[in-house]
Amino acid sequence: MAGIAGIGGLPAGGLSALAQAYRQQVLASGPGASGASGASGAQGLSAAARAQAGREGAFAGVLGNGLSSLEATNANAAAKAVQAATGDLSDVHDYVIAATQAQVATELTTTVRNKALDAFNDIMRMSL
Amino acid sequence: MFEALNMSGSGMGVHQAWMDAISDNIANVSTVRRTSEAAYQSRYVVAASKESGGVEVAGIALSSPVGKLTYDPANPLADAQGLVRLPDVDLGEQLTTSIMAQRGYEANISQLERVKSAYQAAIQMGRS
Fold it and tell me: pTM value?
């Protein structure tokens, strides 16, 4: 899977761009969301700051970090795949380990993402 | 993340080095030298457990350079007494050791598969 991506030419930094987009979205939505409630002086500001800090550590931020580390794992597997194709790989199992790590990490990330999306949809379906 | 995969990989690396050393020994089983030279020294892999888990090749131990003095006056390398130096490699020992190295390598592969299925089962738990 990672090997195919490595040889087939998935655009380099695709996942890191996605992770960056997630983080920017989190930062952009911070002040706007808190501005509606935090209009009254110092307490409002600290509430806004707290909301901002909370959003930094919130799910989207965590998912962004997860995507960054997943991209590093995938890049490692892709580099090993290229070495295997060019004959530079000294130990065959090195590639298999890297590909297995990339596979399991990708499955974990997509599962977490799907789970969060399910939760979001459940909330959206809630009738008020 | 996924440390068990790296540990199995390090085990495969050591068994790979072991098989390399045995192949070298078997390849040189009939390497004849003059009595004035050192005999071929068979290689033995020294394994050491790593602090962070897993195993690594700590070094290569060499057998005695004396070898086996053999009477072979027809050999062009024989000295005045008709002696040559053969390596002190026991082919039967090397072959049985190579089975141990092979089985160890395979054991690490099956452990890798087992760990991978365990991780995937845990991820599967999050689906549905």
Answer: 0.69
